[in-house]
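Side project, low priority. Logging it here so it doesn't get lost.
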Amino acid sequence: MVKRFREILIAVTGLTPQVITETIYALSQKKPPVIIDEICIITTTAGKKIIEDALVKKGILNQLISEYNLKSIEITERSFIIGKDNNRTEIVDIITESDNEIIGDIITSTIKRFASDPETRLHCSIAGGRKTMSFYLGAALQLFGRPQDRLYHVLVNPDFESNPDFFYKPKRNRTIEVKLKDGGIKRLNTRDAKIQLAELPFIRLGDKLSLKGKSFRELVEEGQKDIDMATTQPEIYIALDKRLIKIGKNIVRLPPVQLMVYATLLKQKTVRCKYIERSYCLDCCECFIALNELINDKNLMDFYLNIYQGNMERKEKLERSWKKKDIPSDLVRQIISKINKTLKDCLSETSIIPYALVKNVKEYGSTRYGIKIEKDKINIE
């Protein structure tokens, strides 16, 4: 059975309420049709008044619903979202830099809120409002949009675009009179109207970033930082039988015991990952392990065996040595310290060093060790 989403129309609108009905009409004409369940209108106080006068008081929205037998939708006080300034006063228009930031934050928080509900599908129209409103709506969808969400622009042929008497294409033809600049009158037939819905592709970053910022500016800065961190990280390739590590363009060689410890810590990025569905690790350290867990990890001896190309005698000798000595944590710390020193000496690009070194995090009186590199950057053979 195909999952049924709650279909939400989110429109940024200024002084042209037509874009709301035009979008609802155009969605209903898609194959299969999209029938809107709820409308969210992001606007100003001036825009709200015009929308209420045209779509509610004059009953144009209900006319559209009745004529095309659509699901009943109401525009109520809750349908409107209007930005407020520092004095908690609703903004009348978007004319200052402050107004722009306010509306950007409102649009972003609205998209984030609706997108947090997995049962919804957002249909976002950029056809109305100021150009900055359209930009913010598209950008907010990039930050929080899901695979099911859509971004549209409504295209109407010039004679009918922004025409104060045209709100959608009626089933029956009617005539609209338009006053020309020279004082004459031009008669338009609604059967000639063309309303098209252009779906705009956008990059969906919502499940690839871990965003905690509140304002649009904070979210963009945070998102850029995460993307930069993920894309600048090097690939780490380990050929155990050759005792070779390649980090980006750098070749690093470690003694067998250090190599098996380093490879084991890298392996934790996948075997202990608690968030398999996440595309990026970012600052997550949940896969980091305590020294006693590292010492007893079965991957240690398996990797050591691979380093010596299946020589069981070598593996058994190391196992006896470790068990006999009951390997102390201090010794493992020394091994990690030597690994990090070698990495620092061998890596030519300082920007990649933080992602390759063995790090530690201290929580609740214990210390856990791991490597910051992204899990999909690791290849161990």
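Brief comment: The longest strand covers residues 6-12.
Revisit when time allows.
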